[in-house]
Write a structure and sequence with these properties.
Archaeosine Trna-guanine Transglycosylase, Chain: A, domain 4; five-stranded mixed beta barrel; 27 helices; two-stranded antiparallel sheet; about 725 residues; elongated; alpha+beta
């Protein structure tokens, strides 16, 4: 018998796992009818109730949970599945098939917050003392500190956390903080009063804290955080009705902020309106499923509703008589529920988040229809009504995200904006691609990069920025860029035009081509470079930004600065070091002749014209082919005659010698093996330079042949 029972329980577990909840519930019911051991009944009863709840039969599930509570002493932890089902019921899509709410903030609020562009994505309140993360998004400094102390931080706006190490080390963004203080003095002062009140509350000086919050709300009457926190203070002072009013105000100002609903639920529970408190906790969990406080309190309330009727009054419920009456009504009517049906939306003219008054929620006889005005809902009906309300609020949250700034605040900024408040302290022009350093200072991206080329320290406060420099991933400060785009469009357009003209000029590979004065370079031959001078750091960065990834390489010249012939190099890869130095992997592409020598921002430039070999035909082509084959064979003999160590060093640095070309004149630069050989031959740069200037392949081959003959004779002496 025991084996058969175990098989049935295993089958029920498999049915539960495969989401066949009806079958699982039937098996558990059958096993309960045959179970002799009373000690195992609680576990099976809870499993059956869980299966019914997950199968959508909430009314029947309530009855089974009630049986478990009356017979076995149900604990709050047993109601986790029921709680999940109720929360999912609230968050279900509207029956009309509308989309689920979008842009929901992880903390249960709108992504933009009540202050529009000037809101913090963590507290959803006014952005006070903003700190800028590496991704470019801004949050209140204190919010970041609090978030970083609890868990690894990820940006709430973009989800990036890869570059966030110690967020508490990030300083307040000086430029943004100054702007917000100037533009919104009342909101700024209200936040300061709020922090003073928080300090007093932490010291258990609740009356003084309340006074601070009263002053703050007078200055910022639309700040939902102020009402939420004042609700908590009222609760501490046992002003429960006032706490409820403040919590309702917070919910009206921010209907989808989970913390406001927690405050409201706590206030409702304090005055004995436990059914409404449960509803608020469920709404909170539908917005923020990981809210542990709401989950635990909702489990306790559900446990109280399902517990047997007794004359004992739990200490945590202040007015238990109404709960007893409500619970009796719940038990008498729960069997009459038709779980799959959803009652029609509650008709109310109140805004979302408005709680019913005591008169509206007074207990009426159960003979009233489910949607009758004034009828008090038992928990299962309240959950369904909450679901409808949550769906209506979710539909109301779909707003035009193109207008990031609310109208009144936008007009305030229009009157106060001053272009000088948005100027870079380095170039003294309006910020272009503003970037904030970890120390809190803001600069144009290019201005900052040029300063860091010379010294890895902040140009203003001289704080070390080596780690910031090593990342080389500078993200623009989103809020600063949006402000400039909205309020200074003309000045921004001028900056953009200047930048585009500069990019177009730097992209020209015939005029003012950047020249690296260092060594000889040849077409098709790799040329690795170690960049450490500030002027060449700037030059390499510009080559990458323009997209050309090319610059010229020339030998130095005592008179002209650099030689009249060179090779255009293409950047294949750049590896940066923490101190700003870099290793650049390049390869030669084309030869050129310098037409005019110039300079730009500390490095050399030149107007150039490209060189190509002159092609020959007929008898001259046959002679060229014969000479090509002879010189290639001669080069192989010389290479193979080198010592093993010497040959390995050459092959390790330059790679293997290219194969002989079947058509020597196919490339405008001639055969690639010629340039490889010239690069490895032990010749000084001045001796190699004439080969680069030649446009006759025959003369180049003849010159290489003479060099090889000289090298062979020198070795035999």
């Amino acid at each position: 018998m025991g084996t058969e029972s175990e098989c049935m329980l295993q089958l029920a577990a498999e049915a539960f796992q495969s989401k066949n909840y009806d079958l699982a519930a039937d098996i558990y019911e059958h096993q309960l009818s045959e179970l002799a051991d009373p000690g195992c009944r609680l576990d099976l009863t809870v499993k059956r109730a869980d299966a019914l709840a997950l199968g959508g039969k909430l009314a029947e599930a309530f009855g089974v949970y009630r049986q478990a509570s009356e017979a076995e002493g149900l604990r709050p932890a047993h109601l986790d599945t029921l709680l999940v089902c109720l929360v999912e019921h609230i968050g279900r899509r509207p029956p009309g098939g509308g989309d689920a709410p979008r842009n929901r903030h992880p903390a249960g609020g709108d992504a933009t917050g009540g202050c529009g562009a000037f809101s913090c994505g963590l507290c959803l309140g006014f952005l006070f003392e903003p700190a800028t993360l590496p991704c470019g998004h801004c949050f209140c400094k204190r919010c970041l500190d609090r978030e970083g102390a609890e868990k690894p931080v990820r940006c709430r706006d973009c989800g990036d956390g890869s570059r966030l190490t110690d967020v508490r080390s990030y300083r307040v963004n000086v430029a943004l903080s100054g702007l917000l203080c100037k533009w919104f003095p009342a909101q700024t002062h209200a936040v300061r009063l709020r922090r003073e009140g928080n300090g007093l509350y932490a010291e258990k000086r609740s009356e003084e804290a309340l006074e601070k919050y009263n002053q703050a709300i007078l200055m910022a009457p639309s700040d939902h955080i102020l009402f939420s926190n004042r609700s908590q203070i009222h609760s501490t002072l046992k002003h429960y009705e006032m706490a409820l009013r403040d919590a309702e105000s917070a919910c009206r100002l921010k209907p989808h902020w989970s913390k406001g609903h927690v405050r409201k639920a706590q206030a409702l529970a304090s005055i004995g309106r436990t059914e409404e408190a449960l509803r608020e906790y469920l709404l909170c969990l539908s917005m923020q499923p990981d809210c542990r406080l709401a989950r635990s309190e909702a489990q306790k309330l559900l446990s109280d509703f399902l517990a047997p009727l007794t004359e004992q009054v739990p200490d945590r419920i202040l007015d238990y008589s109404s709960l007893l009456s409500s619970r009796a009504h719940l038990k008498s009517s729960i069997a009459q529920l038709d779980a799959p049906t959803v009652p029609p939306p509650l008709k109310t003219s109140q805004p979302p988040g408005h709680a019913q008054s005591p008169s509206e929620s007074a207990l009426l006889p159960s003979t009233l229809p489910p949607d009758a005005p004034g009828r008090r809902l038992h928990p299962c009906e309240a959950v369904k009504a909450s679901g409808i309300r949550g769906q209506e609020e979710a539909a109301g949250r779909k707003r035009d995200r193109s207008a990031e700034l609310p109208g009144p605040w936008s007009s305030v900024v229009d009157d106060l904006v001053d272009p000088t408040d948005l100027e870079c302290s380095l170039c003294m022009r309006i910020f272009y691609e503003p970037v904030a350093t970890p120390c809190g200072h803001t600069f144009c991206l290019k201005c900052l990069e040029r300063c860091l080329d010379h010294n890895p320290k902040c140009p203003l406060c001289k704080e070390e920025l080596s780690e910031f420099l090593a990342r080389r991933q500078y993200c623009k400060t989103v809020l600063m860029e949006n402000l400039i785009s909205k309020y200074l469009p003309t000045e921004l357009l001028e900056r953009q035009n200047v930048n585009q003209e500069e990019i177009a000029e730097l992209s020209n590979l015939n005029k003012n081509v950047p020249i690296f004065v260092c060594t000889m370079a040849f077409p098709t031959v790799p040329c690795p470079l170690h960049i450490f001078e500030p002027c060449y750091r700037l030059m390499i960065r510009r080559c990458m930004e323009t997209g050309t990834k090319c610059f010229g390489m020339c030998l130095g010249d005592d008179l002209k600065g650099f030689a009249d012939y060179g090779c255009l190099l293409e950047i294949r890869n750049v590896e940066f070091f923490s101190d700003g130095r870099s290793v650049v992997d390049t390869i030669g592409r084309r030869r050129f002749k310098v037409v005019q020598h110039n300079q730009r921002d500390g490095y050399n430039t030149a107007d150039i014209e490209y060189l190509e070999d002159v092609k020959v035909e007929g008898v001259a082509e046959q002679e060229l082919q014969s000479l090509h084959n002879v010189v290639y064979d001669q080069a192989l003999v010389w290479l193979n005659s080198l010592k093993v160590e010497q040959k390995e060093r050459i092959l390790g640095h330059f790679g293997p010698m290219p194969e002989k070309d079947s058509e020597p004149q196919a490339s405008p630069n001639g055969p690639s093996w010629c340039w490889w050989l010239l690069a490895v031959l032990p010749l000084e740069g001045r001796a190699q330079l004439p080969f680069l200037a030649l446009t006759s392949l025959k003369e180049r081959l003849s010159g290489i042949r003479r060099v090889l003959l000289f090298m062979t004779r020198s070795r035999h002496r």
